[in-house]
Amino acid sequence: MPEKGIIAIIGAGSCDENISRIAERMGKLIAEAGFVLVCGGLGGVMEAAAKGAKKAGGLTIGILPGFDKQDANPHIDIPIITGLSHARNVIVVRSSDIVVAITGEYGTLSEIALALKMEKVVIGIDTWDIEGVIKVKTPEEAMEKIKELL
Fold first, then answer.
1. Other Cβ atoms closer than 10 A to 140
2. CATH match of 6-149 with 1.10.10.60
3. Fewest 10 Å CB contacts: which of 25, 65, 87, 123?
4. Helix %, strand %, coil % of the chain (to 5)
C-alpha cells in the first residue's frame, strides 16, 4: 500500500468547465501529497481528477464498470476491469482511505452512502448535502482535511 494512502474521487460522469477545473486541481493536490488516486475511470470528474494527478506525476487507478480496459480515460495508469456496472462503486469506495465527492448524481450518491456505511471519511465539494459528509468549498480545503485525517 502507498505510504500515505489512497484517495477516491467520485463525481459526475460529465461536468462543466468549472467543475472540471476543480476536479483537476483536486487530482493534482492528491498526487503532490504523495497519495494514489482511485476513481471510476471514466469521464467527467473522474477524468479531470486523473488528468490533474498525472500532470503532477501521480499514480491513477480506474475501477471500470465494463469489460474493456479501453473504456478507461487516457489518464488512468491501472485500469481494473470489473464487468460490474454500478456495483463497481463498492470497489472504488472500499479501496480508498478517504473519499472526495465533487458534484455528482445518483451514482455519486450511492458511493457516498456506501462510504458512510463503511465508516469512511467523505469530503464533499458542491455535492449532496448529507449528514456525515464534511463540506468544503475548495480542493485546498479538502486536502487540509485529508492531511489532518491521514
1. 11
2. no
3. 87
4. 40, 20, 35
